[in-house]
Amino acid sequence: MSEFEGVEDTLFIPLTARITVSKKFPEYFFDQKALEMEDLIKDKKIEENSTEYSIIANVARCYNLDKMTKEFIEKYGKCNIVNLGVGLETSYYRIDEKNSLFFEVDLPEVIELREKYLEPGLNEKLIKGDLFKLDWCKELDTNLPTLIIVAGVFQYFHENDVVEFIGNVKDIFENAELIFDAANKFGNIYCNFYVKRTGNKSARMYFYIDDVEEFAQKINCQLIECRGFYKDALRILDKKVGLYSRTAMRIADNRRNTMILHFKL
User: Fold this and answer.
1) Contact between 182 and 155 (Cβ < 8 Å)
2) Calpha distance 20→247 (Å, rounded)
3) What is the mean pLDDT of residues 204-211?
4) How many structural domains comprise the chain?
5) Quick check: is 118 in a domain?
6) Which of 37, 56, 47, 63 is nearest to 13 (CA)?
7) Is residue 149, in this structure, part of any structural domain at all?
8) Which residue in 17, 56, 67, 96 has the fewest CB atoms around it within 10 Å?
């Protein structure tokens, strides 16, 4: 499917999901840029080995992150939106807020692939680098209100790496918030099974959160919100999706199998 292996290769999973849902359920989520990149998906193994639920799960994360990003921009006006581990994410085009500054950070080989298919916008900057080394912080005004988004990334690291990263970021920014997705232990087991099923056997997920409040104390940050993935998906899609998908979405939200965490740094 690609020249990438391991964690980098997983960037094709959310792209496939955004393409699929944009075709099947545009009333819930539509991503024109993702559709324009469909030729990138050379191997259909991801789509063939994905359940309806897992496809919606990938897009539900994007749907909620878009909403939360727009709320942050509405609150602060001119601000930094930082996507760490951006991959082939196309949220910049979906959100389309020209008054904000978007910074897209990922490993050099991923950014080089992105540059081939996604021309940076006037208020968008691509940064090659390791998000944990924090060199990307030098590329933006850390005094501006800043929203840092880490989607589908922390799971591939250990908890001590994530906690250390958050502590280091807190020391750099004056007014920043952090949003990232996480699973509990059960959700983590499911996610590892799903990634292997799509054909990627080298990207192991380690990080999960069973107690959100305890984790907030561990990183010494204010928890703004713990949001489930599927409230709007269940309302908008209703019986357009299968019974298994609806049941799995309700269980995931009720048991915090998957969640989006929003912290004040």
Assistant:
1) yes
2) 21
3) 89
4) 1
5) yes
6) 47
7) yes
8) 96
